[in-house]
Write a structure and sequence with these properties.
The chain is mainly alpha-helical. Helix content is 66%, strand content 1%. Among the domains are: 194 residues, no CATH class; 171 residues, Tetracycline Repressor, domain 2 (Orthogonal Bundle), CATH 1.10.357.50; 102 residues, Monooxygenase (Up-down Bundle), CATH 1.20.1280.130. The protein contains 29 helices and two strands. Strand 1 and strand 2 form a beta hairpin. Helix 11 packs across helix 18.
């Protein structure tokens, strides 16, 4: 056995220097042990990884293996004890720790020390080479005279631990070849030298033997102690062997009597559990094997949600329960492709559903077609995150809206014989060939169809929104349940980990045939009840999908099942933000449906109005059209909650054109009436009196025309307005009816109030300006052919203007009720019109006074104060005054007549005063003064004799010049 000291290296020839010193070379590679380390045979099975187990480092007391004997030792004990390289026996032989080979190995050099080679000593050897040669030469020339010292030197060579004759220096020191290699042949001297050398060698051998004997004598006590210790060790080993045999026998009996039966029962229970798991696994594999046929069966009945849930469940089973099974290696990719195919099928099926739902008869019931199918499709599309399905519905909706108009026109054309559909193929041309009642009936049918269309879309979108809200609510509930259950699951896991450590030993003892890690995993799985039943639960889910495919009689029950399974797969569900976006898109889609419906109705209007037919409607027809459009817009706003402006804008555009045409027709008509008006008093028919009476009651409406009958009232001379008589011309009566028509249109179409007010203002201004041109401007002389514009014509025109002025505040109040507060600024037009009319009336009054003024100037210029009295001049003046009074008395009210004659009288006094001043007549009481007094009295008596002028104060005293 080797001691703690390392073995001496063997000297190598040609390596050391000339002094025989051996220089050890260092191998640059890492040092190795002389013998490979061999472990004792393992008595406990190891895991395939090759790593030892902590539980199996020692020999097994249960299993019996090959017995160990001294012959199993790798090193012979006597050889180890008699190692000649050891200088001293070890005292801790039986107490020290031995290796597996029962021998010490070479101590590995430190990795922290540098590897010193011969090149490191190169500079030193070069410096000392010359001195070494001189030293060697001196030793040869001058040997040591002390033989004893020389002998000790030579003996030291043999006693060196690194003694090796293959070393040239050592060999030359032992055998001096110089004696054998001398010049010349062998002589007696050489023989003597050889004998002398042999004697020296023999002497050296004796000295070595003596030294060996001495060394043996020094170590004899330790040798004999070791031999005696070896015998004692053998005795102890035999006793230990017998004790171990007895212990093993007892242990075997305990194993046979107490352990094998219970352990066999535990192994049987584990084997049974393994068989049950294997059976469940095989059933699960059989269920998974039927996935594709089951999916195909579900797809044949359009059960997309069930098919998707079955695919998701199968993929989950493949990843968790059946991972690594070779026969199912391609099933995952096949299921992914099948899932993509289902996505396309759902999109196509939803498109077909939308097309069939929107294209069916609008009056069919129910409003939602196949509600369960729609819910299933929406659930499937949401599950697959196909959130753009509303775009498909929007496209189908637009196409269906176009078809509604085409169908309504086509159905109406079938009943109209005047329209040949083979010749006139375009819908717009067909609508323009219809009469207004026919076209209006088509428009009402379109409105009714679009209302039903929007109701159907709203019902469908309501179902879609309910599905989205249901899924969103379920997701929120599941999230709350997961948050609430996360704390409980953490407590259960901590309890399970505490129980797992206690059952680890039982799992190890009862485990056989598998790995210890598998046994620990099985013990952990036994602590989790949910994990034990996972395979059976998943298998039941797969079989449930197959059951759904086998029988889908009750749609509602299967839908509930799909709903529960669908909501459970949260990983595929859209986020809450995406769900809210879908809800908003559904509401926007309803708004879009309303806008599309209005746009299609606008096209119906524009197609009819292309040739200007809507502009040529009478007010009653246009009012009916406006009312129908307003009712449709109001209904769609209540239904969709969206204010669409396209149809209102189109109606407003048509209303503007209608107002323009309406106004131009009446303005043209008024111009024709004025151009043909002879400005004579016209009789007032009873219907116009009724019209005025209706206005007096506070209602500005057109009364219904009555059919003429024998009991009808006769026309009257005057128009009674609030107890006052108005002598009017026929044009004014029609003007009253015209502005009442304007007011009536505003009642029916409030949106055109401002435009209609502007047009009515223009009409009133036109009447005022044109009547002024014809009467005051004497345009009627050329237009109508009147010989002259009489005072009666002037008084009649003034009275007509006064009638219009009377109604302007009433018209203003009526329009004020139809305008918004921000539109009140347009009412200022009535103020301007009232001023213009009053100015015109004042001009007519001035014209009447001017007529008499010119008469007075002409007559009084010939006045002479002489008999007979009254003079002819004053008789002529009174005659003209009587004619004036007769002309205007019945036309103008009494107050206006008095005011007019007061102005005429003032004109008369002014001209009379001038004439008297020219004649030199003064208030002196003379004859001329008396004659003038007689004429003035005659004038005063004749004027006051006229009706309504009895109390007129003429005050003729102002005509006299004061006496000079």
């Amino acid at each position: 056995m080797a001691s703690s000291h390392g073995s001496s290296p063997v000297p190598r020839p040609g390596v050391g220097g000339r002094d025989g010193i051996y220089h050890k070379e260092r191998d640059p590679s890492p040092p190795r042990c002389r013998r490979p380390v061999r472990s004792l045979p393992d008595v406990c099975p190891k895991e395939p990884t090759g790593e030892g187990r902590g539980l199996c480092d020692g020999p097994s007391v249960v299993a019996e293996h090959d017995r160990w004997t001294v012959y199993s030792s790798k090193v012979n004990l006597p050889a180890a004890l008699n190692d000649p390289r050891l200088a001293k026996r070890e005292s801790d032989f039986f107490t020290k720790t031995w290796g597996l080979d029962f021998a010490e190995t070479e101590v590995m050099p430190s990795f922290y020390l540098p590897n010193i080679t011969r090149e490191h000593f190169g500079p030193y050897l070069q410096e000392t080479a010359q001195r070494e040669k001189i030293h060697e030469r001196c030793k040869t020339i001058c040997p040591n005279k002390d033989d004893f010292c020389l002998l000790s030197v030579f003996l030291q060579i043999f006693l060196k631990p690194d003694f090796a004759l293959e070393d040239p220096a050592t060999f030359n020191a032992v055998l001096p070849w110089s004696h054998f290699n001398s010049a010349g042949g062998k002589s007696s001297r050489d023989v003597a030298s050889s004998k002398l050398l042999q004697e020296k060698l023999s002497h050296y051998l004796d000295v070595v033997e003596v030294s060996i004997a001495r060394q043996i004598s020094l170590r004899s006590e330790a040798f004999f102690h070791a031999m005696s210790s070896q015998h004692e060790l053998q005795d102890q080993l035999q006793e230990t062997q017998r004790a171990v045999a007895v212990l093993r026998g007892r242990t075997a009996d305990m194993d046979r009597i107490m352990c094998q039966g219970p352990l066999r029962a535990l192994r049987t229970a584990l084997a049974r559990n393994n068989c049950v798991k294997l059976h469940n696994k095989l059933k699960l594999m059989a269920a998974v094997h039927q996935t594709q046929p089951t999916v195909q069966l579900l797809l044949s009945t359009s059960e997309f949600v069930g098919a998707l849930e079955l695919i998701a469940t199968t993929k989950e089973v493949l990843q968790q329960e059946l991972q690594g099974i070779h026969s199912f290696r391609h099933l995952g990719s096949q299921l992914c492709e099948l899932e993509k195919l289902i996505d396309k099928m759902m999109v196509e099926d939803f498109s077909m559903y939308a097309r069939s739902d929107l294209s069916r008869c609008l009056r069919d019931e129910p409003q939602v077609l196949e509600k369960e199918r729609l819910e299933s499709l929406v659930f499937g599309l949401l599950r697959q995150r196909k959130l753009d399905f509303l775009d498909i519905y929007s496209d189908e909706m637009i196409m269906a809206a176009k078809a509604i108009v085409a169908q309504a026109v086509a159905e109406s054309v079938l009943h109209i014989e005047e329209i040949d559909t083979e010749v006139v193929t375009k819908l717009a041309d067909q609508m323009r060939l219809m009469t207004f009642p026919q076209w209006f009936e088509v428009l009402k049918n379109v409105f009714e169809s679009f209302l039903l269309f929007l109701q159907r879309i709203k019902a469908t979108l309501s179902v879609i929104g309910n599905v989205v809200l249901e899924v969103l609510d379920s997701n929120q509930k599941n999230r709350l349940l997961e948050e609430a259950g996360s704390g409980a699951s953490g407590q259960e896991s901590s309890q399970g980990s505490s129980l797992l450590q206690g059952e680890a030993e039982l799992a190890y003892l009862t485990h056989e045939g598998l790995f210890i890690s598998d046994a620990l995993n099985e013990a952990q799985q036994q602590q989790q009840a949910a994990a034990q039943d996972q395979s059976s639960a998943v298998g039941s889910r797969v079989q449930q999908g197959r059951a759904e495919a086998a029988g889908c009689d009750s749609a509602s029950e299967s839908f509930v099942g799909r709903d529960q399974n669908f909501i459970s797969s949260e990983n595929m569900m859209p986020t809450e933000l995406e769900m809210n976006r879908v809800i908003n898109n559904s509401q926007e889609l309803l708004y879009t449906a309303s806008d599309v419906s209005h746009d299609r109705c606008v096209k119906v209007l524009t197609a009819r109005a292309k040739d200007g037919s809507l502009e040529r409607l009478n007010s009653a027809e246009f009012v009916c059209l406006s009312q129908a459009v307003e009712a449709f817009v109001r209904d769609t706003e209540e239904l969709c909650g969206r204010r669409s402006v396209s149809l209102r804008g189109a109606l407003q555009s048509q209303a503007n054109r209608f107002v323009h045409r309406f106004h131009e027709e009446r303005k043209t008509k008024l111009s024709l009436l004025l151009d043909n008006e002879r400005w004579k008093q016209a009789e007032v028919p009873a219907e116009f009196q009724d019209l005025v009476n209706s206005i007096a009651d506070g209602r500005i409406t057109l009364p219904e025309r009555k059919t003429p009958g024998p009991e009808d009232r006769k026309p009257t001379e005057f128009l009674l307005v609030n107890g006052q008589k108005y002598a009017v011309v026929g044009t004014v009566l029609l003007l009253i009816r015209m502005f009442l028509e304007y007011c009536h249109c505003v009642n029916d179409i409030p949106s055109i109030a401002t435009d209609m007010l502007t047009r009515l203002s223009d009409l009133l201004k036109h009447f005022n300006s044109r009547s002024c041109q014809l009467v005051l401007g004497a345009g009627a002389l050329q237009v109508v052919g009147l010989k002259t514009i009489t005072t009666k014509n002037l008084a009649l025109a003034s009275r007509c203007l006064q009638l219009v002025v009377h109604y302007i505040p009433i018209i203003r109040a009526h329009f004020e009720t139809k305008l918004q507060p921000k539109q009140f600024s347009v009412l200022r037009h009535f103020d301007h019109i009232t001023k213009d009319y009053n100015d015109h009336i004042a001009e007519i009054s001035a014209k009447l006074v001017a007529i008499m003024d010119s008469l007075f100037e002409k007559v009084l210029s010939k006045y002479e104060v002489k008999a007979p009295m009254p003079s002819a001049c004053f008789r002529n003046v009174c005659k003209q005054m009587a004619k004036m009074h007769e002309a205007i008395y019945e036309l103008l009210p009494e107050e206006q007549t008095q005011m007019l004659f007061l102005r005429i009288n003032a004109s008369f006094k002014m001209h009379l005063k001038r004439q008297l001043a020219r004649l030199g007549v003064v208030n002196d009481g003379g004859p001329q003064h008396g004659l003038v007094v007689v004429d003035v009295a005659f004038y005063t008596e004749n004027v006051q004799a006229l009706r309504s002028l009895e109390r007129l104060d003429l005050n003729m005293a102002e005509i006299w010049e004061q006496k000079r």
